[in-house]
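I had to read the description of the data format several times before I understood it. The format is easy to grasp once an entry is in front of the reader. For illustration, here is how one protein appears when written out as sequence plus structure tokens:
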Amino acid sequence: MEKRIELEKRGKNPANIKELNLDNCRSTSIVGLTDEFCNLESLSLINVGLTSLKGFPKLPNLKKLELSDNRINNGLNLLETSPKLTHLNLSGNKIKDLETLEPLKSFKNLKSLDLFNNEVTTVEYYRDAVFKTIPSLKYLDGYDEKDREAEDSDEEVNGNEGFEQSDEEGGSSDDEENLNESVGLGAVYSANIDELSDEEDYEALEEEEDSEIAEDSEAEEEEDGNSSDEAETPEVSRGKKRKLEENQE
């Protein structure tokens, strides 16, 4: 355990460490964890092989302690040096009777206690007795006195944040709707302008085509007039020639 603690410290001052994970480091007792970790708030000792809590240091700011899957059967009084403890997980240990839990009644801040998979959970009126022994306790083995499932504090925070976020998202969606409406009106207005401009272009095109048709018709009339003049000219010439011939005779 001492080597693991040194590894987890990573060269930091123990007084500056707030969380320490020593899961699966094999030891039957607590060794190397000292009072120097005075600001430690979360300590995890899952599946270490502890048979007792002998050597547990004074951790005045400790709030969460994980001791599941060990072989602890007594000595909970050694945790009294951590009066701020709010969450204690002792599931999967060797606690057999209610008397072993008596030291926990002095914890005024303890809200959650997990004793799942301990023999003590089979004792008659186990739940009622534990809630009476620890007045501050709110959840035992994940449920309150009325068998309602515990609410994760992190989830509660996230839920509140999610609610506020949803409100913000709702506001943003309203803004988006307003924006969409304004964009939609703009698009319709633009479309109307485009349609009007298309109509004007179409009318101008029609006028231009009509003008071209008129010009073409005038040109055709002029060509017809010229051709008629050209057609009359030979007849006039022939008429003059006949008159000259008659006068000569």
